[in-house]
Fold this protein.
Amino acid sequence: MLRMEKFTNDTIDITQLPKFEEVVFTKLHPSYWKIILIFNVIFILALGIGLAISLQSIPEFLPYQTQLTIGVVVIAVLILFFSRLAFVKKGFAFRTHDVLFRHGVIATNTIIIPYNRIQHVALHEGIISRFFGLAKIEIFTAGGDSSDIEIPGIEKQQAENIKQLLMGKIQKEL
Amino acid sequence: MDTLFREPQRQSAIGILILFFDTIRHYVKAFWAIVVLWVFKIDEINTTYLLLGILVAIVVVAIIAYFTYINFTFHLDYENQEFVIHEGIFNKTRTTIQLNKIQQVNINQSLVQRMIGVYALDVDTAGSNAKEGKIKAIAHPVAIELKAALLDNEKRKTVQQEEILEAPIETDQEKPFIKISTLSLIKMGVTSNYVKSFSLLLLAFFTILDYTQKILGEDVLEKQNLESYVNKEFLISSFFILMVALFVMVLVINLGRILIKYFDYTMTKQKGSLLISFGLFNTKSTIIKPEKVQIAAVSQNYFQKKMNILALKIKQATSGAKEERKLAIEIPGCNHLEKDAIMKLLFHKIPEKGIPLKPNFRKLGFALFLTIGLPLLGYSIFRNYNPTLGIQFNYLVPVYILFVAMIQFFKFKNNRLYIHNNHIIKQSGAWDICTEIIEPSKIQAITTSQLFWHKNINIGSLTLHTAGGNIAFQLGNFTTIKQYVNWWLYELETSDSNWM
């Protein structure tokens, strides 16, 4: 809506605009790291059991026993290291007019969705997440899969609040 | 009406069957390998065990289907004007769709659904696919009622009426806005798809080289007498003829394809929209609505520039089928004036190239590494293992390096992001130079990305997501990119511009 009496048309100083790069991001809930750990441990255990079985059943593997074991250990360490890095680097922020999500291990990606571009919102609770009282918020736009945001590891109540906030924002923006 | 679907509802009880078959299909898809193994080893496995296994599987699937049914509810929240779906047994998901964001509600029936007598109802919003509302089993009257309730809001109504009004197309009496002549189409056919033609030519060239080498090779020479010298010359000349023929064939095929597809390409203006019809044998017609246009792409190569023709591609935001979303409307062989007229219609003004943003030289370096460094590394390894085989191809190495380096250099040189108040234009390509044009107001989301070792040299990448695809620009000055992002966000968030 354009109100004539208040209408001004000053030149905008780009450098004075709010800076998305200076936003302080909220870290994911610490319990979410436990969930990642559980999944990783399951995976590594499966890998270890697989190795043990193949060492038992395939005699050709036996001479390489130490190398294979070291390989599995290295993979396990790498998985844990990168999961931790990915967890630490994930963060989200809700500003007055948009939502920001930061992620990525090698590259730091920041995706920003203005509230007036959100199509719909979904709340997802995984079975292990539910045990820790956490939920995942999924925010969808019309820009296809690459422009959707999934924020995991948010406390259930907070997630509900965020969803309510977003739904309210979407409506107001219309 | 307002009380309808207020309470959370389940699907049709008979729908458990649908869910049952659906779950079976799901698991068969996931475990088909095991199923195949079973079928092949049917003699080896004790039949009782097999039957027992199948029985257990069916019971488990039935239980899963039952709980899926129990846990799937949908309802309308009239206070918040939302359509809400709860689903999931262990992993629970609650999807909320704003009523006025709903583009389309489709009622479908698959074979299984027809046998049981239920329908599927899909709620379609713009953009993201697959994750939207989907009810698998619902009785027909309920589906109709739900559809009506979902589409029952003022905004939606007006949009629908518009679409109905525009549906009957009668343009005979109107003068066409742009008509693309057969000559333009011929020009287009001769000048486009060069990469395809060129690669075919290259292939032909090397085949000939291979043959001549075989003929001139020592083995051959020893055995051959004078008689075969005549044959040899004949062979060489015939291969040259073959090469020319191949080139002509590529051109003719290109030409034929374009002529058949786009013959009599006519654009007519109607109420601000563009009606397009084309085709020699079966006439196709589409409609371009300027407000739905997300990306307009112009592509032109050196020859086309000299002939004053170009190809236009227009991507609209559509709410239709998924395949339709990916399809762009192509306008082949229009000239500069026609392009400007179309641009004026789509964007209300001719897009200007604003301040250019250049990629860092590292982009060229990385591209060269990927397209020359890695293949050469692979080749040298290959040569180490096959010393006799590898040497034959040595003469190809400089040709390859020169050719690829040239392509990469022009790609890098042409890669620009022009930023203007009203338009963002991305230019790319080595031979066919493509410019993609979007309006900042069509942006849905923005992603910035930076590799950690690029932090100190301050370069990074940008992706603008629109409902018609993404516009990406890599390795530009990150400070500038961030400034523009802040500015675009400001523009998006302070206006209620309609992106569709």
Summary: Chain A touches chain B through 51 residues (CB under 8 Å). Chain A has two domains: 31-86, 91-173. The two ends of chain A are 11 Å apart (CA to CA).
